[in-house]
Model the fold of this input.
Amino acid sequence: MNLDNVSVSVQLQDFDVSAEIQRLRNQSAQVGAVASFVGVVRDINDDQTISILELEHYPGMTEKSIAEIIVMAADRWQLIGVRVIHRVGKLLPTDQIVLVAVTSMHRGEAFAACEFIMDYLKTRAPFWKKEQTATGARWVDARSTDQTAADRWKQSD
Amino acid sequence: MVQILFFSLIREQLNTDKLSLSLPSPGITLQAFTEHLIDTHDAQWREVLTSANIIKAVNQRVVDDDCCLADGDEIAFFPPVTGG
Done:
């Protein structure tokens, strides 16, 4: 994959999925498949109503770790382009949090790489979520199911 | 000097987001340096910095306790990540 076709952003602002996908498609006429994932803020987590979700990150390491995950994906699948956007700061229910979009010649690579990048991002990129609920603020606990999802990719090596 | 960063719950529990310190000795391991931080702060630091699931990074890469430190390193302590 041409690294010029890889872009990672950590930002406060929202993003436009259609515009991002259009930009990826414009990178090459070889693109035959686009797979994308959008993570969204839910209004309920662990049976509590969420009013605000605040995302903290480790500037520098965050971008570096996502770039490394993309390189790992490009080693496993034939990809044309990858776009990752992760928002930080204060978000509200229904807001978009994260975009992973992948292009390839055929759908299999794009689907697999999109899921791989998302699974690894969840367990390796240094972001932390804090929820505001009716009873106060709490840091979200890491889920073992996220680690299990990332570990699946190791077993298939 | 080394720069030490604390994130998320760890930052709140220690009420500290960053510190700049001289290394007590060159080539000291991260484990010994963590002990040094604990010894030079109050009891809360021992509880927080020895918690089982704490993650440590040096120069923005997750490392083990036997990692050796050098002047100029950036050392970070944080809980398991929860992005995405």
Observations:
- Chain B touches chain A through 17 residues (CB under 8 Å).
- The two ends of chain B are 34 Å apart (CA to CA).
- Chain B has a mean pLDDT of 97.
